[in-house]
Amino acid sequence: MKNSHISATCFLQPTDREEIHQIIGKLGSGKSPGHDNIKSDIVKMVAHEISYPLMILLNHSLSTGKVPTDMKIAKVVPIYKKSSPEEFGKYRPDYTDLFKKFGTHCT
User: Fold this and answer.
1) E strands of the chain, at which residues?
2) I need a surface site. Which of 84, 90, 91, 97 has the fewest CB within 10 A?
3) How far out from the chain centre does Cα 55 lie?
4) Angle at 98 between CA 92 and CA 103, to 5 degrees
């Protein structure tokens, strides 16, 4: 039986430069780069210059539902959580690509 009060749609708020700056500020320093070879320290140094274009890109992706091909590629590293390392369920994924982190934080 369907619930008539549950909507089949959702709305994601567009991001702004302030949110982009906050996310950049929270990026860890000295982390390994993803497949794009961009280190978080570099992104922090150019945060002011890239925040506007990055905001435009993310908002366009949200409004159109289209993501640039390069942003669909991810380097996912399994991070061990606890217990026996032989148990597959004891790992969590970690996305190392910086710009994918923006997408997940802004949605």
Assistant:
1) 76-80, 91-95
2) 84
3) 13
4) 80
From CA 82, how far away is CA 17, in angstroms rounded?
A: 37
For the record, the structure tokens of 9 come out as 């749609």
**Helix/strand/coil percent split, the chain, to 5:** 45, 10, 45
How is residue 27 annotated by DSSP? Answer: S
Q: Please tell me the distance from the alpha carbon of residue 6 to that of residue 54, in angstroms, as a whole number.
A: 33
Q: Which residue has the tokens 């982009």?
A: 20
Q: Is 17 within 8 Å of 81 (Cβ atoms)?
A: no
Q: pLDDT tens digits, the chain, 107 residues: what are they?
A: 455 566 667 667 899 999 999 988 888 887 777 777 888 889 899 999 999 999 999 899 888 888 888 777 766 677 767 766 676 666 666 655 555 666 665 55
From the CB of residue 23, how many other CB atoms can be counted at a distance below 10 Å?
21
Q: Which two tokens stand for residue 29?
A: 């320093």
